[in-house]
Amino acid sequence: MRLPRFLRRPWRLISSPASHLSLGFLTLGGFAAGVVFWGGFNTALEATNTERFCISCHEMEANLYEELKTTIHFTNRSGVRATCPDCHVPHEWTDKIARKMQASKEVWGHLFGSIDTRDKFLDMRRHLAEREWARLKANDSLECRNCHSDESMDITRQGARAARVHQEFLFTGERTCIDCHKGIAHQLPDMTGVPPGWSDAAFGP
Known about the structure:
The protein is mainly alpha-helical. The chain has helices at 5-15, 23-47, 51-54, 58-68, 84-88, 93-103, 105-111, 118-138, 160-170, 177-180.
């Protein structure tokens, strides 16, 4: 295919070997460009991995963030606060990238106003919650384990019921965190129609 006249000269410049630049200069230039690109990429990645970024969408700030502020994950005796990415983004780099790619669909939801009103949010709430529960179930509650680990859990300092359930289900791998802690940071959706007993093991906040 023949290029248009105005593109021929730029194409020749790009595709022709360098006649005045040394291999060393090109190598160093490529390395520097790679460092700049990588630094910019990671800066952008971390900028989108903050609570400030998450609640910049009014859908999140007016709904889920307001609920989070009433829970122990927001205010507690230890002064350690869990932010949005702590619970919704894995810490390991490869898992984080996969989650970011998955979450890019949420940008479309924001642009097209899928839940831009309280009524729309409430109508979609159960669907959104069940999708997030399924994701956490599939990855063995990876984000919960950002802060909580089986190895460091001292069940002797837990209530009798929590200790029993953790020994029976969590330590054996029969269940994962999200199976029992669905209402830990946000209000549960309307669960009408769900068979009784779905939350027998749930002890909430």
